[in-house]
Amino acid sequence: MLSEADVIWMDGALVPWADARVHVLTHGLHYGTGVLEGTRVYPTPDGPSVFRLDDHLDRLVTSARIVGFTVPYSAAQLRAATLELVAANGHDACYVRHLVYLGYGSMGIDTRSCPVNVSIASWEGAPHVGGRDEGARLMVSSWRRNDPNVVPPAAKATGPYLNSVLARAEANAAGYDEAVLLSSTGQVSECSTENVVVVRGGALTTPSPSAGVLEGITLDTVRRLAADLGLPFRHGDVVRSDLYAADEVFLCGTAAEIMPVRSVDDREIGAPGPITRKLRDALAEAVHGRDTRHRDWLTAVA
Ligand code: PMP
């Protein structure tokens, strides 16, 4: 269950949580016409701070551009609205969900006369991710990842998440924590809501964007933390057997943070490995503002 907060930002105003409603003929509800972001706030020595807020807002605007929406607010306005919301809700640590969606006003597939609505919500905690601490058990899904020429995975858009929902539900029903989706050409792409990183011989590889991958902000954080630690990091082709043969595999995402993988298709990888643990510790230092090299990733709420 969500832990309810006091207010939600809707189209320029803070409204009480219970009043943050939309009409049943909202376009985005019928056709999945929306783009979204999930961002986190952590306690830091400077008080509650949003992790990589500007990068999340940049990606929101880019997602909107990919799907052809014009966001009716500037990134600066969305930034100010986010900080106002988190301060109003008095959170010390929370998850923030930005949503830009086609609203109520016309029905049918034609989007030209639809209003573009924007909401920002925050609540304590983060979406549940199974296997987060002890290591996730993955299965390769029978569902393929959205193909970039069918619906672009580079946009964090609402409708395409049905692909993730199908894969995650299949994995959970079969007793696994999470699903790995292969691209239409058979390469590993990503999980339902996390990027995948394979560690072998001390080097990190993550699937190339051409495999149908969201450019994860946590993944970019991992890339930079790996550089701090002198660990090679590259994008490349990853196939299913690379997961089975890996020394370590971990997932990364805003909700999952860095999540070790215990097994893939019942091939044991084992307890969280040394590189996964080092990066997990480095991420914890960065998000909590204890690593002064990366203070620019944090925006203090007040
Ligand atoms: N891939 C998908 C499909 C996702 O939904 C997410 C979560 N936003 C990620 C990767 C990880 O992205 P981020 O690190 O920016 O949360």
Automatic annotation (TrEMBL):
Q: In which pathway does it act?
A: Amino-acid biosynthesis; L-leucine biosynthesis; L-leucine from 3-methyl-2-oxobutanoate: step 4/4; Amino-acid biosynthesis; L-isoleucine biosynthesis; L-isoleucine from 2-oxobutanoate: step 4/4; Amino-acid biosynthesis; L-valine biosynthesis; L-valine from pyruvate: step 4/4
Q: Which GO terms describe its molecular function?
A: L-isoleucine-2-oxoglutarate transaminase activity; L-leucine-2-oxoglutarate transaminase activity; L-valine-2-oxoglutarate transaminase activity
Q: Quote the catalytic activity from the record.
A: L-isoleucine + 2-oxoglutarate = (S)-3-methyl-2-oxopentanoate + L-glutamate; L-valine + 2-oxoglutarate = 3-methyl-2-oxobutanoate + L-glutamate; L-leucine + 2-oxoglutarate = 4-methyl-2-oxopentanoate + L-glutamate
Enzyme Commission no: 2.6.1.42
What does this protein do, in the record's words? Acts on leucine, isoleucine and valine.
> Which region is the signal sequence?
none
GO biological process terms held by the UniProt record: isoleucine biosynthetic process; L-leucine biosynthetic process; L-valine biosynthetic process
Top class in the EC scheme: transferase
Which Pfam family name is an example for this entry?
Aminotran_4
Identify which cofactors the protein needs according to its UniProt entry: pyridoxal 5'-phosphate
Q: Which domain of life is it from?
A: Bacteria
Family to which this protein belongs: Belongs to the class-IV pyridoxal-phosphate-dependent aminotransferase family.
UniProt keywords, alphabetically: Amino-acid biosynthesis, Aminotransferase, Branched-chain amino acid biosynthesis, Pyridoxal phosphate, Transferase
Protein name stated in the entry: Branched-chain-amino-acid aminotransferase
